[in-house]
Structures are given as C-alpha cells and as structure tokens.
Amino acid sequence: MSRTVIRGGLVVTAADEIHADVLVEDGRIAALAAHGTTTAESWTEDADRTIDATGKYVIPGGVDAHTHMDFPFGGTFSSDTFETGTRAAAWGGTTTIVDFAVQTRGRALREGLDTWHAKADAQCAVDYAFHMILSDVNEHALKELDLLVEEGVTSFKLFTAYPGVFYSDDGQILRAMQRSAGNGGLVMMHAENGIAIDVLVEQALAEGRTDPRYHGEVRRELLEAEATHRTIQLARVAGAPLYIVHVSAEEAVAELTQARDKGLNVFGETCPQYLFLSTDNLAEPDFEGAKYVCSTPLRPREHQAALWRGLRTNDLQVVSTDHCPFCFKGQKELGRGDFSKIPNGMPGVEHRMDLLHQGVVDGHISRRRWIEIACATPARMFGLYPKKGTIAPGADADIVIYDPAAEHVISAATHHMNVDYSAYEGRTVTGRVETVLSRGETVVDGRRYTGRAGHGQYIPRGTCQYLN
Hints:
Layout: E1 3-7, E2 10-12, E3 17-25, E4 28-34, H1 38-45, E5 49-52, E6 57-60, E7 62-67, E8 72-73, E9 76-77, H2 82-91, E10 94-102, H3 109-120, E11 127-133, H4 139-150, E12 155-159, H5 170-183, E13 186-190, H6 194-206, H7 213-218, H8 221-238, E14 242-244, H9 250-261, E15 266-270, H10 272-276, H11 279-282, H12 303-313, E16 318-319, H13 352-361, H14 367-381, E17 399-409, E18 428-438, E19 441-444
Helix pairs in contact: 4-5, 5-8, 8-9
C-alpha cells in the first residue's frame, strides 16, 4: 500500500476552506485531519512520501468538461492529440477531461465512439471520458442513445450551427431531447442560428469583408440568444434537461436566467476566452485576429461583466475551455482572404485553472466558487462526482498543490500545448500549479513533468447529478 501525506496546506473545495493535512492511500483520499493533531502527525511516520504544502492551496484536480483533441474540422484536425493535450492539461492542474466523440453522418454512434476510444487508448496522461456528438439524428441513432447511457456515455451534443456538417433541425433536436428525457441523458447544445449566420457570411464575403474580425460580426449576439431561447423551449416541450455550451453573450445569459428563474433544468457553460478576450483580439492586424476565431465568437468587452455576474449568481454553472487548437501557420492560414475558412477553435486546456484564479485575485469570484465552477460542478453535471471534483474520503486522489502568490507570464514559448501561439500571450497571472497528483500518482512534481501516456484511464459516467 502506497501512502502520501500532504501537509500544511489550505484545503479548498466548493464547500469548505480548511487547514488540514490529507492522507492518500492507493490512489484515493483516505482521510483529512487538522494540522498538528496526533492523527495528522502519526500519518507522516509511515508515509512513503510527504509533500509540504505550507502557504499553498490544496485543491481538487480540475475537470474540463469540453475539449476537442484530434478533432476534425474544416479540412484539418485540432493540433493536440490525446497525448499532448492531456499532458498540457496536467501541467495546468486539470486531471480529468471530457472530450467529444463524433458520429459521422450516415454512420452509427457506436462507430464514432469506437474511433475516439482508439484515438485515446493508452495515450492519456490524465483520466478522460466522452460525450457524443449527434450529427445524424435518425431512428437508429435514437435507439443507440439508450445503450450509450447504460454504458456511461450520458451526454449528447447537438448543433443549431454549421449547416451541412453538424446541424440538426428543430424536429431532430426535439426527438433527441425526448429520448434523453426518458433515458436520463443530458442534451448539450451549441446554440447559434447557423442558417441565418450562413446568409450573413455570404453577404459579408460578397461585399469584400473577408478579415477575421468579420467572423465575430456575422455570428451576432442575437443569433446566439435566439437559438438559446429556441432550444430552451424545445427542452420544455420534451420535458428534458438542457446544457448550453460556450455561452458568450449577455443576451444568451439573460435567456438562461429567465429559464432558471422558472425552475427549469437548464444549465450554462462559459469559457475563459469570453471572460478575458474580446472582439479587439479578432480585429488585430495582419491576419493575427485569426488566432482568436472560435464559435461562439469573442464578443465586445462589455459582455464580460455579464458573464462574471452569471458565474456569481449561478445562472452559469461551469467554466470549460472548448480547447480546440489549430496552429496559426498552415491551419488558421487556410482562411486568408476568406474568414469562413479559418478553422474554428482556440487553445486553452492548460490555462483554465490559472485564469479563473486570476478571477479570484481580481475580485470576480470567491476561492470556493473557483473550485465549484472548475472542478465540483462539472464533475456533478456529468456524473463523475464524488470520484472527481472534490477532496474528501473515498474520492480519487486527483490533487493540485497550488501557489496562490506565484506570478507567471503566459506564453507560447513556455506552454505545453501542441500549438504555435498563445491566445493569452504576455498576460501576467497570479497563481500557479506546483504539483499535481492523478489518482495518487505524481504527474507534475514541483514544476517538473513526471507523468506518462497511458496513466490516464477511461471513466464511464453516471447521469447528471443536478436533475430533479
């Protein structure tokens, strides 16, 4: 039996902040005890390893519930594999990712899921699970949903965007929601009016508006809000829960707030890029704005306050990354002269925990809320709690020793994601991951990587733990 003791730190969870030592046995958290007590002192006598966390936070490993490793889009693939992406996640204090397996049009869900299992198997540095993207809703696919829920793939993503690729019409969305209402699954929705957006794209290009900044201008806030409203109403008709991904605009938050005020099982996620970046980045000259092309797009800076407020009031519950990196050279450049050909996506899996801690430093959220939106709620939302997302007896020993005072500068020169730029280049943040344990095994040790591909295990998930 291996025993690790973490001494002297402030344990921060979504529920508590306690000065306690943590005992880890065989990959799980065995107990917590107050500093200096006889119990805590006795642990160190026969520990295989003692980690001094004095002056540091001891927090649960992050749960990033929205990543796209090795993801096909726009004729290319996202530049992080499961091996490189989960290594970068570990560096950033994230110890569980939930990635998206993709159903190919005309093919079975199972085939897509098997493809993603093959991509990830024996490659991951941290634990992982899958959502399923439905791109072809038909009777066979709907029956498969029940089987997937039974085996631990309990959430399904549909799109009102990307006609001809991932788009589902209202009838298909309603059918999927009705099925999930019966089997306990959770429908996740990319909510933008893709039919209307395509009209605006065509008009912009015809008028010679081809630069990256127009990506943000055609994907209007109102078209995000409209699709958010519409899919909430469809979920009400189906009697199904709904999770809106990557909420970026104040108007969409208002739709979520109104639904939640009615007591509906409607949930919302935002991402660090919407909290810290804006259309100013999309407008950077010399095609640099292409680095910031993602969908939903970055919004004018004034939307940031509404997103932070939504996180404080719990109208937004989760911060994920939508990590989908494409290199500037050779990938983002596919859209020179036509913004609609720029692969949609940004890197971020390595910096979510630090950027959200900056939100604590800046007074936007509390420490416990930081852990809630980055660890505990995503774990509960997607059926991983209390195995993941907290520090409590019985939980997996996914633990981060975090130095809240360490300043560092985010840069492509020092990050570990497999992408040639940083969306946060030159930004100084306060707070840094020092040591990371994944199921008790050290994967980052005092800013030195000690993990390995294949340590990460696939985790079947339960159903959403927030449903009435």
